[in-house]
Amino acid sequence: MKLIWQQLLEKLLPIWMQDKSPDPKHFYRRLFTQKYLQKKQRLKYYWLSLAIFLSQINSLALIIGILLMATFITFAILDEG
Q1: Contact of 68 with 55, CB cutoff 8 Å
Q2: What number of CA atoms fall less than 13 Å from residue 23's CA on the CB side?
Q3: Per-residue pLDDT reduced to its tens digit, 14-35
Q4: How far apart are the C-alpha atoms of 40 and 31, rounded to whole Å?
Q5: DSSP SS3 for 33
Q6: Burial grade of 31 (CB within 10 A; 0-12, 13-18, 19 or more)
Q7: Domain-by-domain residue ranges, the chain?
Q8: How far apart are CA 75 and CA 40, in angstroms?
Q9: First CA to last CA distance, the chain
């Protein structure tokens, strides 16, 4: 079953998306560099701790405000450089 999905994706995806070798200069292949993967791992812990913190807050407006700011920070961290 997995083989069928892989073949289908190979037909649908562009050629440059099939290459998964890390390249910090390429807009898509930079997602596979060690630096980017470390940032993603760090942000997992950030979001987990944020979820634990937000579970203690009762104000919906405050939760939404914090989530919007956290989303902005996440994008800023992943897109820096």
Answers
A1: no
A2: 10
A3: 888 778 888 888 888 888 999 9
A4: 10
A5: coil
A6: middle
A7: 28-81
A8: 11
A9: 39
Integer Cα distance of 18 and 20 in angstroms: 6
The C-alpha atoms of residue 69 and residue 54 are separated, in whole angstroms, by 13
Give me the pLDDT at residue 66, please: 97
Residues in the chain: 81
SS3 category, 37: helix
Distance CA 51, CA 69 (A): 13
Positions in the chain short of pLDDT 50: none
Q: Are 50 and 70 in contact (CB under 8 A)?
A: yes
Rounded CA gap, 47 and 67, in Å? 10
Q: Are 32 and 22 in contact (CB under 8 A)?
A: yes
